[in-house]
Amino acid sequence: MYYFFYLLRIVKSDFIKNWDTQLRKGLLPLFVLHIIQRKEQYGYELIVELKATASFEVTESTIYPMLTRMTKDGLLQSRWVEQGSGIPRKYYSLTPEGKKKLKEMKQVIQRLFTNLSEL
Amino acid sequence: MYYFFYLLRIVKSDFIKNWDTQLRKGLLPLFVLHIIQRKEQYGYELIVELKATASFEVTESTIYPMLTRMTKDGLLQSRWVEQGSGIPRKYYSLTPEGKKKLKEMKQVIQRLFTNLSEL
DNA sequence: AAGTAATACATCGTAATGCGATGTATTACT
DNA sequence: AGTAATACATCGCATTACGATGTATTACTT
Fold first, then answer.
1. What confidence category does residue B3 fall into, taking pLDDT thresholds of 50, 70 and 90?
2. Which position among A88, A95, A105, B108 has the lowest Cβ density within 10 Å, counted as fewest Cβ atoms?
3. If you measure CA to CA, which chain B residue comes closest to A72?
4. Tens of pLDDT along A26-58?
5. Do B19 and A25 touch (CB under 8 A)?
6. Which nucleotide comes closest to B64 if you measure CA to C1'?
7. Between A15, A26, A106, which is nearest B25 by CB?
């Protein structure tokens, strides 16, 4: 079964698809921080939100490690919120450091925009 | 010696710097194909050109493997050109497949632009 | 004459990261 | 009883930028 999916990936290996992945890899952290800044988010909510507002389709195995990473890097802080029923949610918000970094990132993007517009 | 540089990288590990790398990772192939389409290029020339026209600083250990990869993927073709003196140059140009892919990539970027502008 | 820098090719190993597969638990719908 | 949605999480693979390193030629500098 594993092997089947492995073969499938080899066969479907497409330059554009691969490139697209790399591109998202770069832009995703920006979108994530931006959305969290607007409003405190929990992981699952963020996945839905990314798809809705940025047409960015990501899976849980992308988002959860990323949120953990950003927390470890001091950009995010989290708190558990018990629900009346169901699984508790882990809400993430920006730390002051996170807000500062987001601002820096937007400046970098701004500069890249300029270069890109020439092409 | 190796270990020293390894430590150095750990210490200087910065979220923004790392993110910037990922971002370039996504945009670089686009710039490379774009520049080669305008005019046939050899590796060393391309490095200089990227810095001059796109403020994109890359090293040889990024560009040479990338050109090899793109050739293997059928996007580029190469030919050796002997110089009157010095080391021969390997010139790269777009294959028809490469031109088609570049067009697709520009469309993807266009779409991402739209999403980005909202932020 | 010797040393450095620029030009020109290339490869190795490490770090980083998206994503598919997989697992667990709860609730709601069919 | 079975499927789907909600909500968390980890493992392992594939991809790729980049520092370090190597080789060869030519030009400039001390």
1. very low
2. A88
3. B15
4. 999 999 999 999 999 999 999 999 999 888 999
5. no
6. C10
7. A26
For residue A54, the chain B residue with the least C-alpha distance is B115
Cβ A63 vs Cβ A46: under 8 Å: yes
C1' (C9) to CA (A46) span, angstroms: 47
pLDDT surpassing 50 at residue B10: no
Query: Does domain A29-117 sit in CATH 1.10.3880.10?
Result: no
Nucleotides of C under 7 A from a protein CB: 7-23, 25-28
A26–B22 CB contact, under 8 Å: yes
pLDDT of residue B1: 40
Q: Evaluate the CA torsion angle B47, B49, B51, B56 in order and state its sign.
A: negative
- Asked if B16 lies within 8 A of A101 by C-beta distance, the reply is yes
Decide which of 1.10.10.10, 1.10.3730.10, 3.30.1050.10, 2.60.40.2080 is the CATH code for B28-117: 1.10.10.10
Tell how far CA B59 is from the center of its chain: 10
Mean pLDDT of chain A: 88
Q: List all residues 6 or more positions away from B27 whose beta carbon is below 8 Å from its beta carbon.
A: A23, A26, A112, A116, B56
CA torsion, ordered A103, A107, A108, A111, to nearest 10 deg: 170
Structure confidence at residue B116 (pLDDT)? 79
